[in-house]
Amino acid sequence: MKVFKFGGASVKDAAxxxxxxxxxxxxxxxxxxxxxxxxxxxxxxxxKVVDGIFHDKEHALDSLEQVRKFHFDILDDLFPxxxxxxxxxxxxxxxxxxxxxGDPELPYDQEYDxxxxxxxxxxxxxxxxxxxxxxFTNTWIDARDIIRTDDHYREGNVDWNSTKDLVKSxxxxxxxxxxxxxxxxxxxxxxxxxxxxxGREGSDYTAxxxxxxxxxxxxxxxxxxxxxxxxxPKWFNDTILLKQISxxxxxxxxxxxxxxxxxxxxxxxxxxxIPLRVKSFIDPEKEGTVINDFENSRLxxxxxxxxxxxxxxxxxxxxxxxxxxxxxxxxxVFAKAGVRINMMQNSAVSFSVCIDNxxxxxxxxxxxxxxxxxxxxxxxxxxxxxxxxxxxxxKRVMTGKEMILEQKSRNTIQxxxxxx
Length: 420
Ligand code: ASP
Ligand code: MG
What we know:
Blueprint: E1 2-6, H1 14-24, E2 32-36, H2 42-55, H3 57-78, H4 84-100, H5 108-116, H6 118-133, E3 139-140, E4 148-149, H7 160-171, E5 180-184, E6 187-190, E7 195-197, H8 203-214, E8 218-223, E9 244-246, H9 247-255, H10 266-271, E10 276-280, E11 289-292, E12 302-316, H11 324-337, E13 341-346, E14 351-356, H12 359-370, E15 373-387, H13 391-398, E16 401-408, E17 412-419
Parallel strand pairs: 1-2, 1-8, 2-5, 3-5, 4-6, 8-10, 9-11
Antiparallel strand pairs: 6-7, 10-11, 12-14, 12-15, 13-14, 15-17, 16-17
Bound molecules: aspartic acid and magnesium ion.
Magnesium ion (MG) binds near residues 7, 8, 37 and 201.
């Protein structure tokens, strides 16, 4: 049994959906769970709808209309005749309109999940019907019947025991009827039966959860890149395809911000030694990258760039030292504000952290820290992480940049820099 994940770009229009069907033709003898993301940039568009509900109703309706039109154009292209699929998608939009009507009843994050999750419901309904029309018998499963989480909205934490039981009782038996199952990435359900999401780009994680719970042989993530590259082509023109990487390296790369995989994806697969393959949906015959248990010697250097970084320097107001008690209250402030620390360094009298410039959280964070500490910060910085660095690669990334802070371990160097 294999788990396939098709991301937003792989179902961004009618041609892309047809391409998914043609990829599946190569796997007719396998049992497959297809996990699909919302089509194209639907999640971003639905985020605007949510924002509109809380701040500007008109705007919410406009944004929703665009999302509706986008999907019905795809539907009309895929299904020249109106049928059940149109009705099902229409009903999902009616529900969305209802939630826009009237004042929001739920707190922002909870409301967000109720609305944004519909993107995946729509894409999975369309894909399932399309595949059926093309002769692929398949069962559509609502991920909310199988993936159970706590109530940490927008970043649900999986309740593994319930999820394992639900997968066993509700998903596995469906393979008796058809060898293909279509379900949604990114979404789950709380014990109070509210829809929840697993964090942006969370569909990879769904694929890993389902692979873990079904003891799958392999996970295949289909992307618009040839596999895992040693740098984001957005920043680098001579990237190298990494043919095979270890779970450990994949976790490290995702942790430092490589956007190729959702950071939580690897752990469950590593625990059961299930290989993960990243393949191109444009060139499906190509091998792509396999992430598995193999331990490599040093890989080629991999680069991760984070722009729009802020370096915050925090020191006790009374010029005392930075000690455990200060650190624990500093970390507490970051945790409460929900701001992730990308890199940190301490000296006797100050503690520096590099963070994303989260406009929505920054002021609150600085005010809160300012109660007990002297706080200074620099904006417009970049954080460059090089895994498996050497002198030549460091020199290369530092060209035209001024070093603000550097941190090295045996395999990884992190540089906070400013463009000069
Ligand atoms: N549709 C969701 C997002 O764009 C989940 C995913 O694509 O993985 O974040
Ligand atoms: Mg996506």
